[in-house]
């Protein structure tokens, strides 16, 4: 395949707007996969249970385009997140490479790197739903990368579709000429042929040169337990052949290419990859950490300039993970290590806590990433785990240095002048919420934002005019920590599905933060420490103290439960003493059930932790940290 018949593209869409369905139709129309005859409409690219479960929950703001990333993590073998197909028009064969892209902000980095291998993108919008938050954020990334955008309205078979109105919306939001918008039904296949045509006509071919030195861009990698690391690459110049000796620009390590091929959508060994082509290689890389996303590969001895502008992934949400039974630490750590073999974006450190014993502190790209990892860990490691409250990375600035802190126990006491802290900064994001207008919703959304310390609030309409059901976008900056804790849940609760949400990194901002610790009978419990904004400390202190009061088992004496910031106690509850004749109802009902279960499982072996004179079973933390 010479360069001029190759097209590299991706589909960008909000969840449920039909990306997987369209991908299936494209693969069928090009004969890459067989058309399904039965009623089984399970999508080829969606092979994961967890994604399908998430996909149908309708939590549109949070689970977009997840399959790309999940496929990589869970399948452990090369599966088609990238699929190549051949399409022939007027006797001329074209090689179309569909490169999958996650739509969620947690994976902004993946979006950016997979789009770097494309020259164009299909912007797919549901004609019954209209433009949503993720459609906009991913559109901007694609636009910045200079990709040719083909706008496509999907689901026009539905009676509720409003193609003209949504087309006008796309015009006002993206500056797209409505006459360029294709109208299709990915379900029935109507108009999909025209999509293939548009891909060939509108998207420019990659500009590779065959007789230049080899230059290949590594945009993703997978881990196969038999073959080691499989890298997905886009050959920019030169020809890559099986047997080639290659070098990584980033690590200077050398490899020999043992397998070369394309995903069709299963692996097809081709032995070579031409300029412009997208495919996989195996090259005796043993560990995922050797495959640096965004790395440039060249033939050993023929150096090339590496591709600029790629930063490594950075973790934005951290949490400690501990086994409920501390004897299980080794087993837990093994499970975590096994999972991170296939997902390098998770960072791991050992952590030990006086309250919870030995555990691991993990860093994630975002809350969705954390949720998914937790779910996979729970599936893989069949015992209860305790996860501490998530924390974002803070910058603590001293006169002569800046320290990044992502574990509350390491946070200095800023209320004490002796700590010499000049300033504390926290990560902030630019958030956008798209909602229907006008309704009482706008006021509610604004309240929600302000109660989460929003600044720079702005609001504008997506539709021209202010018809009753038109849509509007609200933007503001929010501290990332607010989103990590409960902004998502509250938005979901209050909006009951009419709003969609997205956010992007907006740097750091100085903030009035402090560490809150909780004391049992005067002794601090490290695993419960939190970093809070001073304006909310009273509230948060009270809520947590109440929560602790509810779940901590009564002792033989009275136990004060206190929240403190610095030396100041800001909330307190007393846990009254246990009377000798009380044998039942010591704990909340939920707790009791859990104890029974655990007792059966572990023959009543209960581990007590001592905090001064207070004894707590490890399981109590499960309840404290697990309840919202
Ligand atoms: P994704 O989340 O973007 O991958 O969306 P899916 O491809 O999973 O589609 C979401 C839902 O919309 C599924 O139930 C599809 O069957 C349905 N769907 C997709 N395209 C169409 C279409 O053109 N018409 C209709 N009526 N339904 C569609
Ligand atoms: Mg899908």
TrEMBL record:
Which biological process, per GO, is one annotated for this protein?
A: positive regulation of translation
Source organism superkingdom: Eukaryota
The UniProt keyword set, sorted, is: GTP-binding, Hydrolase, Membrane, Mitochondrion, Mitochondrion inner membrane, Nucleotide-binding, Protein biosynthesis
Q: Which PROSITE patterns match?
A: G_TR_2
Q: Which reaction is the catalytic activity of this chain?
A: GTP + H2O = GDP + phosphate + H(+)
HAMAP family per the UniProt record, alphabetical: LepA
Function (record text): Promotes mitochondrial protein synthesis. May act as a fidelity factor of the translation reaction, by catalyzing a one-codon backward translocation of tRNAs on improperly translocated ribosomes. Binds to mitochondrial ribosomes in a GTP-dependent manner.
Q: What is this protein called?
A: Tr-type G domain-containing protein
Q: Which organism is it from?
A: Serpula lacrymans var. lacrymans (strain S7.3)
